[in-house]
What does this fold into?
Amino acid sequence: MTTPAAKPSGKPLAVLKRFNFFLYGTIAILTSFFPLYFQEIGLSKIEIGMIMAGGPFISIFANPFWGYWSDRLQNVKKILVFLLIGNLIMTVIVFQIREYAIIFLLMMVFFFFNSPTFSQSNSLILNAIEGTKYKFGAFRLWGSLGWAIIAVAAGPVISRTGILNLWVLYGILMAVTLLFTIGLPRGNIKTVSPKGERQSYWKVMFTSKVFFIFVVLGVLISVPNSINQTFVSLYITNLGGSKELIGWSVFLSAIFEIPVFLLFDRYLKKSTKVMFACLVVISVLFTLRWLLMSIVTGPVQIVFIQILHCITFGGYYYVGTSLSAHLIPEQYRATGQAIYALTWGGISGIIAGLFGGWMFESLGPRMMYEIGAMISIAGVVGFLVMWLWLRNTDKTSRSDAEAPEAGSKATSASS
It folds into this structure.
């Protein structure tokens, strides 16, 4: 049985928007410029790929671990504070080291704190707005706004201060993000569970076959996206682009997520069939995006192609988050979001890091994106089959429901 928690006042919800702005913007800096930093200190693309693959590998354990404690403590805010403090400490340490083996090990600890932050912030939003008039997109769009504005502003700053001082800018912004945790809502939903229910935790997570299929298919769509996220900045520099251009690439990829989230808030129906139909369309656009990336001839073209990110990643992120919340019981919501993040950024990130670095160095970026397009096509087929199955199941259910009613009318007429 679930007892709704007290509704948060307007002030904590306003702080939640600012928190998302700085959280996403701060992490956008590392996502965008970390590969350039590693290249600057002499690491090869394969070594960079290994580091970036190690992060998703750690997330396989980190996301369920922190998701479990969020559900157990019923306090997402406290977990986020732990994550951000650990994130900040490990960042400062990593940037002082130059030996690859030590960097790799320290980065694994960093990813243990960093990888669950987005899924936990999603849980905080979903739980804070439970039973209110607010929609998820109205809060998540502040993350996109922060990702866009802070990333584009960071480009000129990093060009002047040097990529080796990236940690200073990141540390300052992370400290600001931590300050905004002071006024956050707890993000708890108080539950009264039957004795022993926690022992069937994983069984509850995978009771929904539809959810399981969704996250498996999501790996096919997310592998090329993870490859692009890791190596697009290197692709831009290889074609002669500047750090400022990388910043604008990030800006254009995120700023248009805002209208996408608002449109989904307004028009997306909380129907499994409708959401899978959306995933089919989004997967087709992902395929188109990677095909376009495989034929570019200059860095500016990449920047404009990145605009498709708002529809592809933004759409998949919103629909996937909503679908996970729709299919998973609310008392397990933090863990449901963690498993969604695990397959989206964890398993797919491992594959992307290990094989993406090799493909970039051995086959070239064009072939890397062509292979990404082919993987996405497999995802399109999977989601399409799933949507057709759900549609046929829905028709069968309606037919079964109408048959007794028709029989009843016939009996009445004969009597």
Residues 1-6, 191-201 have pLDDT under 50 and may be disordered. The CA atoms of residues 277 and 387 lie 6 Å apart.
